[in-house]
Amino acid sequence: MEQKLLKQYQQTGDIKPKHQGGNSPPKVQGADLVTLTEIIENNNDATLEELCELLKDQTGIRKKSQREKTAKTRQKYLNYQCLVSAKSSSFH
């Protein structure tokens, strides 16, 4: 730990923590964000899936709903289970 701090001090003249990577930038920015706000205000009783579809229709931005993400994860798991089961049954 001390060696790391010493090396950092020699290179930068400072021992402040380095900047972390951070998150990816949001998909919806600028004018698209204004459009999204208007969509939500004009369709305040819409489901998340409906809002995603309206956003795609008006801006071309495709946002996956949590339901779609969960379904995709579940499908990957089931595919993996089928693969494992097929491999284990082929050895018998």
Summarize the structure in short.
This protein is mainly alpha-helical. 66% of the residues lie in helices and 0% in strands.
Describe the protein's architecture and organization:
- With 92 residues, the protein is mostly helical.
- The chain has one domain.
- Helix content is 66%, strand content 0%.
- α2 crosses α3.
Feature tags:
92 residues; mainly alpha
> Helical percent range?
55-70%
Q: What is the count of distinct domains?
A: 1
Strand content: under 5%
Tally of individual helices: 4
The helix-strand sequence is HHHH
Most strands sheet: none
Topology (elements, then pairings):
Elements: H1 2-12, H2 30-42, H3 48-59, H4 66-90
Helix pairs in contact: 2-3
